[in-house]
Amino acid sequence: MTTAHVLRRRTWNEIAPLLVGVLISIAVCWPWVGRGGRLLLLDWVIGPHPHLLSRSAHGLDGGVASGVPLQVVVGAVDRFLGAPSTWLPIAVLFPLAATGAARLCRHGGAGLAGCLAAAIFYCVNPMVFDRIGAGQIAFLLGYALLPHAVVALLEGADRGWRGGWVPGLWFAALAGCSAHYAWIVAVLVLALLIAVRVRVRALACVAIAAMVAGASSLYLLVGPAVGSHQISASAGVDLVAYRTTGGSSFDRVVHVLGLYGFWREVPYEPRTVLSGWWLLLVVLLFLAGVGYVDRLRRPRAPGGRSVAVVLLIAAGLGLLLALGDQGPAGSVFRWMYWHVHAFQAMREPQKFAALVALGLCVGFGWGVDVLTRDLRRRVVRVAAGLALAALAVAYTPTLFDGLDGHLSTSTLPADWAAADRAVGSGPQSAVLFLPWHLYLAFPFTDARVIANPANDFFRRPVISGDNVELPNVADESPARRSAYLVEEMANARTGGTAFGSRLAPLGVGYVVLAKTADWPGYDWLNRQQSLVKVLDTAAITVWQVTATDPLTQRVSRRSPTAYSVVAGSPGPITVPEPFDSGWHLGGQRPQATPEGVLRFTVGPGPAAIRFTPWPWVRTGYWLSAVMAVLSGLLAFATRRPVMPAVRRLLTSRGG
Fold this sequence. Notes:
Elements: H1 3-29, H2 68-81, H3 88-107, H4 112-123, H5 126-133, H6 137-157, H7 165-177, H8 181-195, H9 200-216, H10 218-226, H11 235-241, H12 249-257, H13 270-273, H14 277-297, H15 304-322, H16 330-339, H17 353-372, H18 378-395, H19 400-404, H20 414-423, E1 430-434, E2 439-441, E3 449-451, H21 454-457, E4 462-463, H22 480-493, H23 499-503, E5 508-514, E6 531-536, E7 540-545, E8 555-559, E9 562-565, E10 571-578, E11 583-585, E12 591-592, E13 597-602, E14 607-611, H24 613-638, H25 643-651
Parallel strand pairs: 1-4, 1-5
Antiparallel strand pairs: 2-3, 5-7, 6-7, 8-9, 9-14, 10-13, 11-14, 12-13
């Protein structure tokens, strides 16, 4: 076989999975292309005025800055492309996932047929279906990058410290999509160390990778370190509410192995339209078992056995953790949840099933490789592999065509644009958006429930419902301001007329009521003093708040983390910002008002009020970016023969 032939085969092995991923992407996303409008999902809502940095990204509201790099990228893309930015991340994740799964399968010694089968199954399965339906696109982008990170880790483990730079960057990219991958990667690293029996080279690689990932993700650490740590009092209820589904222990194990178990069951899941789904699962598991047995007993390529061992251990640990507090490791899971603050991010344990999906899909690819390897012609092997991969497609047939036609883009009604024009722009007056719910269904979403979209649909700051309203959970919001608003709305509903004046200390200049959900129950707004109706359409009503609070008159908002106080009479002032001890006026700490906002005492001169953790959070972003760039340069240097030249240059005595 000539060198040119080998290069052509290698190129085709890399291009074919990419083409498969592109075809799957087209099959899933084509209903959204060219239709206009925005794709609005349960936890994926990007409006026409997205914020590049959320309040949490500034260190506010506890400072959990999960997914900030992705948030910035998507916000920037939206400013250039507009509505297509809402579905482009979904279109991108399939080629990424397909090429990653194929790389990992090939790293274990599989041929093209097996690699394509693994790529198809990794892209088309119930976990991907459920997460798209729930709008957890950031998590899915991390899922697409996960096999690439595994390949980098496996390759780096044999190179010692020089091999740690690349997997460290992959780990940082995963955390940049979703902070949940910090724990998923930790399980993966543990699986590697168990598989290689803690070799020195592997330890050195892991140490460098952890250093690179941590240094490139400092923004995730700085915010919670300097934030106010406002943790919901219902954390224990969360642990129950977000449990992996299943009526019995056996059912839960089957659900996780079948890549189901998502706590929010989708009514049109594949298993609801596929009566024999469990039979297909048995076949898929059998083929995966064949693949693993082959790799463990007769590895066909260097590293095939070690790859199989790592994936088996990672999938096994992922299965145990995906069962959460209901599984054999339930006591460990509960202890971690209550005693390790950052582990509360994994309140939904089924996210650990990403490791199960990786192990199952790659094992399936190896099983297909076993069944097709004796076929003589390469074209025949590939055709047979694709025929077997059809089992994976049959297992999740409703993923295509925009999740079987259930997801479509939404065109915002002109009434919303009119409401935005009515309230105008500027940081000084906020908008109170009602109905007071975190999740709502709208006519323009075909009655599909989505996260409250007001924050990205109005140019002014928005105050909206922040209670997730889970069963048996009365209130999850830690904000005193929210409790105050709920109480005042209850008073107005029973006959009070002073709601407008009660909003003044919160800096609310407008009240917007969308005519959806339980909006008829807000008819009491029409009888409130200090509320003047400025817009009333079929979809939305806007009132202007005419009441003012003398304690806020000297205060002006300059940025999300800074207010200025103009000269005036000395005494107390109110800052319309949710109470957080991180706000300072000089050396003065704030007091909490009954409305749940800030109060300071000032002199007659001007003053500045700043959120003091923000400079630290901002420094964390800069350091993360600098460390990522430096790590990338070092990764490049250690992968190519430039280090000897650098050493000679540094040790030379000549010019």
